[in-house]
Amino acid sequence: MFEEGAQLKSHYGADNVFDFSLGNPNLEPPAEFKENLRKISAMDIPAMHGYMANAGYPKTRSAVAAHLAIEQGIPISADHIVMTCGAGGALNVILKTLIDPGDEVVIPSPFFVEYRFYVDNAGGITKTVPSREDFSLDLMAMADAISEKTKVVLINSPNNPTGKVYDIDAITGLARLLEEKSHKFGRVIYLVSDEPYREIVYDGIEVPSVVAAYRESLVAYSYSKSLSLPGERIGYIAANPKLSQLAKVMEGLILCNRILGFVNAPALMQRIVERLQGIRVDVAAYHKKRDLLCDGLSSLGYRFYRPNGAFYLFPRTPIDDDVAFVQALQKKRILTVPGRGFGIPGHFRIAYCVDDKIILGAMEGFEKTIREYS
User: Do 264 and 310 lie in a common domain?
Assistant: First the structure.
């Protein structure tokens, strides 16, 4: 889709192509980021660009842990943090640490398209579980899917592609389920939460703490969205300090961070994010874009659940063939992504982290396309 968008823009001009295909934040990083980038770049720090401990700089990990301790009310320290190359790097490190060949990873759908490949990388087997119609967790279906081979349950909240936030009842219910299943099968079942959109939430919604809810849990985080730094590849793993095999898991995370080829999270970015805990982009701007898009598409007859967070909308397609509908939109120079790539056919994903003029300019094409199938 990225390449297709580039070709269309070169042919028709960038202002005449409405590209909603990638979750590439269009907001600039906060002023504090640019200020600290200038300051730190100008500093004369010995071995500033050299290797560091594989888990990351101690001061950075301490800053992250201190922020998490306040934000989520958990007694976490630097010893429970590993700095990573974004959330994608974090998830690969976690799964490589936890998974033995043949272990199952249970994932509610719809889900981020790359999860299957991350599980494959670790030699695991992906088992997907449909969510409810409104994209909330179906705990009964999850219970049926978890078996003696299950090692990890992987969730993503706020969710890509739906923007759904799993509420406290869902998280505590899932925690109880995993405790029961772990006891039944005599093995630890880990809960891994992918949270790069944690701060991007609307309407007073709060994202419950997975670590506070369930002992055997880990969090993958990225600053790509909260600070608009997707190209800098900086994030972290936070391990629950109550993990039953904490020392072994931490050793595994630190080793896998190196042997998977990431080696270290970028040194300069570690020094910067150390100073930016609690700083984020203007979420109100994404809130406005969400409402602009949802109000417009609703008036045209599109059916969807208004997202609680992130910057994606996942409407139903007016025909069963989501690929065909996305191709029809493409003829109007509107780029979106078919739902089947996220495990749910009959939907399509719109990434609305774009200029408002793209949202407004695309409405005519959205209207003409849905009329063709109504």
Answer: no
Going by their DSSP bridges, the two strands 104-109 and 125-130 should be labelled as: parallel
CA distance 163 to 372: 28
Q: Which of 193, 121, 120, 180 is CA-nearest to residue 153?
A: 193
pLDDT digits (tens, 9 = 90+) for 249-305: 999 999 999 999 988 999 999 999 999 999 999 999 999 999 999 999 999 999 999
Query: Which tokens is 34 given?
Result: 């640019």
Of 252, 273, 294, at which residue does a domain stop? 273
Q: How far apart are CA 360 and CA 372, in angstroms?
A: 20
User: Which one-letter DSSP state was computed for residue 16?
Assistant: G
SS3 370: helix
Tell me: the pLDDT tens digits for 305-343? 999 999 999 999 999 999 999 999 999 999 999 999 999
Pairing mode, strands 217-222 and 334-335 = unpaired
Scored b (16 or more CB within 10 A) or e, 295-319 reads: ebbeeeebebbebbbbbbbbbbbbe
DSSP-derived 3-state class of residue 289: helix
How many residues are listed for the chain in this entry? 374
Count of domains for the chain = 2
Instruction: From 273, 299, 320, give the residue that closes a domain.
Output: 273
Angle 356-372/322-331 helices, nearest 10 degrees? 120
Owning domain of residue 110: 34-273
Residue 203 class from Cβ within 10 Å (0-12 exposed, 13-18 middle, 19+ buried)? exposed
Q: 303 near 315, Cβ under 8 Å?
A: yes
pLDDT at 289: 98
> How many other CB atoms are there within 10 angstroms of residue 213's CB atom?
20
Distance CA 293, CA 211 (A): 34
- Confirm whether pTM is higher than 0.90: yes
